[in-house]
Records
---
Amino acid sequence: MLVVIRGAGDIATGIALRLWRAHIQIVMTEIERPTAIRRTVCFSQAVVHGETTVEGVTARRAESPTEALRILGGGCIPVLPDPEGACVLVLKPEAVVDAILAKKNLGTRITDAPVVIGVGPGFTAGVDCHAVVETMRGHYLGRVIHEGTAIPNTGIPGLIGGFAGERVLRAPADGEFRQLLEIGAQVKMGDVAATVNGEPMVCTLDGVLRGILADGTPVFKGMKSGDIDPRCKIEHCYCASDKALAVGGGVLEAVLDLTGALK
């Protein structure tokens, strides 16, 4: 079975890990300049560096659907710089998973593949996809929705270690992001993690810098640009999150259920 996953950020990577470990073949797509924050656990970094490894699984950049299939044959996950998902027409996968997490549908259609799954808000099961997987932390996280939509985006991050919005760092201005601290750094409230046009992006609590935008990324004021984990576990910076794996479990369930129903 071949599945195309649109998006290769941290949630999409958790989905990919779940499917890959269930012996499902995967091709992922990304934009040419990814804006992932949790870069140490994102297969999107294969687009930037040519290759990246998360939890022992290696992803490699592919320049075409043909090369993607060659990379698959070599035991790695291919990541295509293909924001429009044009490779779907060539690869003809059994399933397409939209895990871009744009909070809206950027062009995925229910006719793209025999099984189409939308991840998070912006999709309606039975209209633009066959199933939706819930991404909101809480009781319904990772559940498969066969009719209707996911819970609307609240704009408030889920609780981690008792903190929600406080753990997210946002760009202080429009301009070019200048990273000062590395992922995994121990930080205190008031530390400066980055600057934009000379304005500091200040840490909002004590913890570990779990994610931060890459140096040189163009940003706008208020853009999510960093993530502090108050649990202070450095190892969390280098493995998929509970949320990513929960969502991945829901996608795996939906893929196996819906492709099995076609037989």
---
Amino acid sequence: MIQDNYSLSDAQIQHFEVFGFLVRRNVFNLEEINRINDEFDHRLASLKAEVDPREDRLFNNWPNRNPQTPYISSLLEDPRIYIPSEQIVGEDCVPIHSNANSYARSSAWHPDTKEAHLLMVKNVMYLQPTTGDHGALRVIPGSHKNPLHENLLRIGLDCSFGKESLYLKEAGLRGEDIPSYIFCSEPGDLIMFNQRLWHAAFGGYEDRRTCTFNFYQNPKSLGEKETMRKQLEVAKEGIKFLGTIGPQYHPWWLENPDENSKRARWINWLKEWGFVEAEK
């Protein structure tokens, strides 16, 4: 792999900064997507055997860094994922969350965070074709920035599913009619977005699949460090709310048998900040 082949152009970086998202087409090929889906199938089947079928789960989701999905786990260290993320978030950024998700519902408009002191970026890969009326991710360009972001928050939002923005409600439009960019995608396409960006998905269907890879800025200022400390608590509450099955940082991944230097740095950082310890 030639590292420069996966670098973003200055125009792409500018697009991300202005609009809060960037679409990248044909990042992975069909053979790779088939391999991802095979691992997804096996892990989803084992997960369903682990949970009570009577449990009302928001959706099925689990961390990617586990021995049942070794190829998906390796994608964090794939330059197609980490190089663009490092360009946007910083070379010393760290992947805090990396999940596989099987949805069955639509998602109302929401941001993943309202924190302004720390840059958090999510890479999303859909494993089936999506369209506007069939589960495609939608984003409101520029809604990661104030005053639009704060205006949309006018409900005391806690960033959870099902909450409704009063600002959007006053527009008198259905959620799916809010002006937005619709990420109509084919397997192998990726979208990166600032986690403050408002996003939604309509036309949800059973087993709508995504893999996500989230990179957080390495905090340096006092405000950034305080926000990162908050993320420890946010992570704990998120696991409870979303019903995530399994540890985010599986011992198998933490062993780092290939002595990957990038993973070693990530692991040391996650331990120093208490993310690994928080799961025990």
---
Amino acid sequence: MHKLFNLLAIAGFSLGATVGAQAADLAFSVGSTNDSTMTYRLGLQCDFGRNFTESSSGRLTGYWDTAYTYWQGDKTASNNSLSLTPVIVYEFAGETVKPYVEAGIGVALFSDTEVEDQDLGSSFQFEDRLGVGLRFNGQEVGLRAMHYSNAGFSSPNDGVESYSLHYALAF
């Protein structure tokens, strides 16, 4: 299991190095689950480098998100996860502030199969996300809802959700 965890970490950071010529953001977030587990996330967002469509009202684009999340349990042991997710973004037009909505489905690998009272059933999970936010001056602030589950590939499949506030800075 530790080998898979390490492989996902290497793949994620390799992706970041590979697309280094494209726009990238360093992202931080803090959140919570509905059973009071705190989540702390550090990630790298690498822009797709293209717009799928663009109009006077906005543009459809996206990015790759690779991240490490620390799940701080207060009832049971803490957990760690690594994730890799393609994210589609619709960014509304604006001169200095650009609102956006985002959605993505990717994969995550947890170091343990439990997060507090939730039994994930396996270390491999799918990561689904929905988010909203604002982009301005090379920065981004937003809210995200993220759901993790194994999609029924193993049992049990309790899944877990995290709701977070995030900040990203372009570099």
---
Amino acid sequence: MSILQSLSQLTAENAVALTIKKLMQYKLAHKLITLHPKRTPQARLAGTYISKMKGRGMEFDEARHYQAGDDIRAIDWRVTARTGKTHTKIFREERERPVFIATDVSATMQFGTQLQLKSVLAGHLASVLAWSAKARGDRVGGLAFNSQGHREIKPKSQDSAILHLLTATCQLQQSQPLQMSGNENPLLEAVKRLRRLAKPGSLVCIISDFQHFNPEIKQHLRQLTKHCEVRIFGISDPLETAQQQHNSPPILVTDGIESALRVVKSQAAGSRYADIQAQIASLGIMQHWLCASMPLVTQLTAGLIDPTRNLAKVEV
């Protein structure tokens, strides 16, 4: 069985609870998604990441005419001999890019009608993003949060940082109560923390269903985009985006222990998601939306997440 086949198959346990064993498997599938930067990295630490800034790096960029003040050690003697004019080599400076992955496993994410919970899909996505960033030489850290608390992991270039981030995500997902008061907004608190944590030039990936999206969150996202590259990864469930009929039949729901028939009443849930996408698009933020009814690797291999373009206009 290939790694992609293994990742696409979920047991009953893996569909409702995140496990570190399952998340670590995505290390072998990091090529399913890429995180090319959209702007010049501004991190101050030198590293293995090729930036658009020209300096004393290891990656050759171009040869140009020698100018007063250029380092004579950088003279390109072959071009100089061929043209008869002194040329100097210019290199691309190598820098690391801090990557923050914020994963929402709060109460609204503990929901799923087909295949898996939204929080499970969010955890799988966080894992493949983390390993993809690590493979590119970035420093990976993040923020995992539920309705009761959060865990912050400082970006580092070691695998241990990813392990700590994924472990925290699993723990918070499994400890999240199914019922919470409606006055809490864990997404708002997470975005506030990201503004304090993310340094200029960082890549910030936010994974959530954005059920708590409001004007205050939008304002914080606007401020965050001034200094960082922000990418939104939305998670939805088919029942949330379907247009409900007035006389919808009762649906059997369960919390894993008790079961009951409930009539699900929707107030234009699909329109709500479309409105959220439109507001995010107005900020110029790249966004991708995934559905919990399909395995993550299926959506990645099918091209449902294209890192080269904005999917804001795609209907969920």
